[in-house]
Amino acid sequence: MTTAAKEPPQSVPIQSVTIQQPVSSQPSSMLTGQLQPMMDNQFSIQQPVLSNGAANTGLSLGFLGIVLTMLGPFVGGFTCLFGWLFALLAIVFGHIGTARAGSIGVGRAQGITGFVLGYITLALYIAPILFLIAVFEGNW
After folding, report:
1. pLDDT, tens digit, for every residue of 6-52?
2. Largest CA distance in the chain
3. Strand pairing partners for 35?
4. pTM for the full model?
5. Distance in angstroms (rounded) separating the CA atoms of residues 81 and 118
6. Looking at per-residue confidence, does 106 or 13 come out higher?
7. What stretches of 13-79 show up as alpha helix (H) in DSSP?
8. CA 111 – CA 126 distance, rounded (Å)
9. Are 94 and 118 in contact (CB under 8 A)?
10. Residue 42 backbone phi and psi in degrees, to 5
11. Range in 29-33, 67-71, 104-108 the model is least confident about
């Protein structure tokens, strides 16, 4: 009786059954975050992509502002008239994007780069004006 208690129980063979569902070539109408059927009865959950629109906008406007400012002397100065506007918008959106990055976790670098480019663009506008004021006032 003691020998029967020490023997391991008999194992039962398990047969694997594969259920294949037909995969259509048409796009499914399922929303993001829902289960998506795949081959071999596997399911995957698609996570929504996180993005920080304000930070990306600040980066784009900062880049556009500094490019328009740098192109000004080469194209007759017309683009310099609008660079400061893009710089101000880049500063605003860059700061908003950086603050929002603290809560969602993405876009901090884009926000910082956007408002830094905006500040550099504004400095490129203000420095020559201050220089000309100093020269014409006679303090130079």
Report:
1. 666 676 666 665 655 555 555 555 555 565 555 666 666 777 778 99
2. 115
3. 45
4. 0.63
5. 15
6. 106
7. 53-71
8. 23
9. yes
10. -105, 150
11. 29-33
Q: What are phi and psi of 35, to 5 degrees?
A: -65, 135
How far is residue 22 from each of residues 28, 30, 43, 88, 131, measured CA to CA in Å? 13, 16, 14, 55, 73
Output DSSP code: residue 79: T
Structure tokens at 53: 């629109």
What letter represents residue 32's amino acid? T
How does the average pLDDT of the chain come out, rounded? 81
**What number of CA atoms fall less than 13 Å from residue 3's CA on the CB side?**
0
Tokens of 126: 């203000």
Structure tokens at 50: 């996180």
Question: Across-strand partners of 45?
Answer: 35
